[in-house]
Amino acid sequence: MKKALNTAKSFWKKQAKIKRLSTPKSNIKGEKPMLVGIMSDTHDHLPLVDKAVKKLLGEKVELVLHAGDYISPFVIPHFKPFKGRFIGVFGNNDGDHEILKRRFEEFGLEIRGVFAEVKIDDLRIALLHGGEPGGPLGPSELLKSLISAKCYDVIVHGHVHEAKAYKKGKTLIINPGEVCGYLTEKPSIAILNTKTMDVKILPLE
User: Fold this and answer.
1) What is this structure's pTM?
2) β-pair type (164-168, 171-175)
3) What is the 8-class DSSP label of residue 107?
């Protein structure tokens, strides 16, 4: 596992140098800002899922994006206290997709398969897990292709369990880290301000 994690980290070191994330985007200037909560890799850790939801409620986010790896259907009701919009995608470790999808629908939550394009005014966000079933811990071909293409304003992903936010060209890439804390022992979520494009990584300890 450590070898795989080191391989994943080597990919991110090759990406563009991390830039300051507070530069306003001209195409959303003047529009009402939205706070977007971002989480990933909850992996059935219910106490930390509850902490994450509580923190998002405290931050008054209007939208939550989940980049996958819920694992079991019993975790889904723990997202219910959040009253705003919730959009998720499947991760490479998620079990029966049809059962998970039904549970999402029961609680008024959205899950869109393995990829979702989310639009907030003129802001285009790509949401995906970033890993492939049976694949290595490192980023998938799809994720690497999206980053290289620079066709989205924001790319949100998980999978590598490492909290990070950086820019490559005009694209902001966000990994909120892992909610479960299993690999890094540093559970976290992220908050995106759609007006300023500020990203905050918030620990759950």
Assistant:
1) 0.84
2) antiparallel
3) T
